[in-house]
Amino acid sequence: MIRPGISGLQAGVEVKRLSDLPTVAEMRARGRATPKPSKLDRAKENGRRREAFRLTLSLWALAVKNRDRWRDRYDGKPVERTLDLVPRRAEAHHVVSREDAAVRYDTRNGICLSYETHARVERNELRIVGTKFFSVKGSSRRYIDATYPVRVDVVKEKR
To answer: Are 35 and 81 in contact (CB under 8 A)?
Structure first.
């Protein structure tokens, strides 16, 4: 995944997980030009874990929405960037729960959905089915790779 301009990285730098991004202190130690410290860098350096977690998830969500070009992966229609709870509001969904630390900040584990579609996925009315998979070092588990096309199937009710 190409991540231009985040935390002072140059365009074209390959970053697979947000934890791979260097802090400003790490960049200074390597003698590189550094940007003004971001909120995330300050939170990491000052040990504010909850704030760093929230900010990292926000960056992950933004990366997922940008990769999907701000379109709902279920119906392909554009979604809105807003804080209001409207049906077309853009939301980033973890395909595998964010409880799994191995893929929590991995953009391959996220898809952009509208608020309406996301609610249906959370209520188990829709199911995400992968076409390509990836694995993480040290784990034998296979994860759905959302950078490739995925199917969103309607779940049939049990009688």
So the answer is: no
Measured in degrees and rounded to the nearest 5, phi and psi for residue 75 equal: -110, -5
Question: How far apart are alpha carbons 78 and 70 in whole angstroms?
Answer: 6
Rounded distance, CA 106 to CA 64, Å?
Answer: 9
Question: How do residues 85-131 score in pLDDT, each as one tens digit?
Answer: 999 999 999 999 999 989 999 999 999 999 999 999 999 999 999 99
Beta bridge partners of 129: 151
Measured CA angle at 39 (ends 56, 3), to 5 deg: 50
Among candidates 60, 59, 58, 88, which has minimal Cα distance to 74? 88
Strand partners, 113: 91
Instruction: Give the Cα separation of 58 and 78 in Å (integer).
Output: 20
Any idea of the CA torsion for 54, 58, 61, 63, to the nearest 10 degrees?
A: -130
Which residues are CB-neighbours of 154 under 8 A, at least 6 positions away? 125, 126
| pTM for the full predicted model | 0.73
Backbone φ and ψ of 82, nearest 5°: -155, 160
Tens digits of residue pLDDT in 91-101? 999 999 999 98
What is the C-alpha to C-alpha distance for residues 130 and 109, in angstroms, rounded to an integer?
Answer: 11
